[in-house]
Amino acid sequence: MAELRFRTDEPQEQPAVTLDAFLDQSNATAVRLEPDDDARALLPYIDRLTMIEIGFPTFRDGRGYSAARILREAGYTGELRAQGDVLVDQLRYMRRCGFDSFMPNVPLNPVVVDHVLNVYDLAYQAAADAAVPVWKLRHG
Amino acid sequence: MYQYDKYDQALVDARVADFRDQVARRIAGEISEDQFKPLRLMNGLYLQLHAYMLRVAIPYGTLNSTQMHMLAHIARKYDRDYAHFTTRQNIQYNWIKLEDAPDILADLASVEMHAIQTSGNCIRNISSDQFAGAAADEVTDPRPWAEFLRQWSTFHPEFSYLPRKFKIAVIASKEDRAAMRLHDIGLELVKKDGVLGARVFVGGGMGRTPMIAPEINPFVTADDLLSYLEACLRVYNRYGRRDNIYKARIKILIHEIGADAYRAQVEEEFKHVKTLGIDPPAAEFERIASYFAPPAFKSAPDDGLDLSDSTFAAWVKQNTFAHKQPGYIGVTISLKPIDGIPGDASSAQIDVMAELAKQYSFDELRVTHAQNIVLPHVAKRDLKAVYDVLAANGLGTANLDQITDIIACPGLDYCSLANARSIPVAQKIAQRFADAERQADIGELKLKISGCINACGHHHAGHIGILGVDRKGVENYQLTLGGSGAEDASIGKITGPGFDEDGIVDAVERAVEKYLSVRTDGERFLDTYRRVGMEPFKEAVYG
Amino acid sequence: MKILTGNDLKSGAVTWWAGSYWSLHVEDAVDVGEGGEAILAREMGARRVNAAYVIDAVSTAEGPRPAHIKDRIRALGPTVRLDLSLKPADPQVGAWVI
Question: What does CATH list as the number for A4-139?
Answer without folding.
Answer: 3.40.50
